[in-house]
Amino acid sequence: MEDFWNASTKKKDKVRYRQSRSYSPYSEFFSDWKQEKDGITTLSINAFYRFDEVMEPLFQSKVIDGEKRDWLFDVFMHYLIELEFRSGLTKTDWNVHAVMDEMENDRYGREITKLYQELSDREKYYVAHMITKQERTGASVEKYAEVLSVLLENGIVYKNKYREKTLLLYVGKRENTQDKNKIRLAEELFQPLGYDLVTFWEKHFAVLDEKQTMEIDQIELL
Length: 222
Hints:
- This protein is an alpha/beta fold.
- The protein has 3 domains: 2-88, no CATH class; 90-138, no CATH class; 141-222, GMP Synthetase, Chain A, domain 3 (2-Layer Sandwich), CATH 3.30.300.
- It has helices spanning 2-9, 48-60, 66-86, 91-104, 110-117, 121-137, 141-151, 177-190; strands at residues 15-19, 34-37, 40-45, 156-159, 166-170, 196-200, 204-205, 219-220.
- The strands form 3 sheets. A 3-stranded mixed β-sheet has the order 1-3-2. The chain has a 3-stranded mixed β-sheet with strand order 4-5-6, covered by helices on one side.
């Protein structure tokens, strides 16, 4: 969450952290996460979402009273935020990892989570990165085509000259469940409204003036 990161790193001596009183186990933030009063910015966060191993002993302790717990929580959070900052975690990385956590915990739906979990670590990071990019700039055919090409490695996406909102995807290998699931994930997350995708597996479709796509019995008809 970029706004949270900005608030955390500006005028750190005027920032106070507190554990959200009401929160979901699947999210770091809730709607009223930022409050300002008398020059002090108070940021509420569900620290169990990211820092469970650190915070759970603090909140389970029967020795530490509420006021001291709130003070220790603020100290811990200042240290943890600074630690992540110094370890090279940029605002973009922060957002990407937040999306990765959401993808793994059904925030985008169970089907999406299942498809997402089948990806490699590199692919998971890439998809989450593209989601954060899409949230900033909106959906586009270019992003959708890029995701398909990257996930399928050798996939090629074409625009259909005769049907404006139909994209043609050439995979270049036998139809298989793994790649079908990657295509399904890309469709659910990145396909612009109103667009359709037609997939070609082993056989290409004919492209005028491209001899390798004009061989009889080696092409699909549109």
